[in-house]
Amino acid sequence: GKDFQFGSKKQNVFGINSKCVLRGGYRISPINRELSVQNQEVVFDESRYNENNLPAFLRFDIGAYYRINKANYSYTVSLDVQNFINRKNTLWYEYSSSRNDVVPVEGMGIIPILNFRVEF
Asked: Residue 32 in contact with residue 25, Cβ under 8 Å?
């Protein structure tokens, strides 16, 4: 991130930051689709334990904050936006009775976080 100081005594701070998370997908055993449809739940082929991977995980976060410092306290207003490119990452698989098949479960989209903090 980067901080910029403001105010008559440069006591206030405006900051921006970003973060990128890129990692390989978690290990997963292959899914036995025939048994999954029969049992109406996800059934893994445990004889081939952890042979497959979920797709790679990618998330970009950005944020900005403004902190006002006083003699005995300070307060901060910040806005963070997680997954601001709105990428749908596969987290796991589940059985869908409406589709009668195993489907991927995707993570949440854009997550804004507004924060106000007072420090004494």
From this structure: no
Reported confidence tier of residue 10, pLDDT bands at 50, 70, 90: confident
Quote the domain boundaries for residue 7: 2-119
Instruction: State if pTM tops 0.85.
Output: no
Strand runs (DSSP E) across 70-100, as ranges? 74-82, 90-96
Secondary structure of residue 48 in the 3-state scheme: helix
End-to-end CA distance of the chain: 24
Q: Structurally, how many domains does the chain consist of? A: 1
DSSP string, 4-46: EEESTTS-EEEEEEEEEEEEPPPEEPPB-HHHHHHHTS--B-G
Q: Would you state the pLDDT for residue 52?
A: 95
At residue 29, φ and ψ (nearest 5 deg) are -75, 150
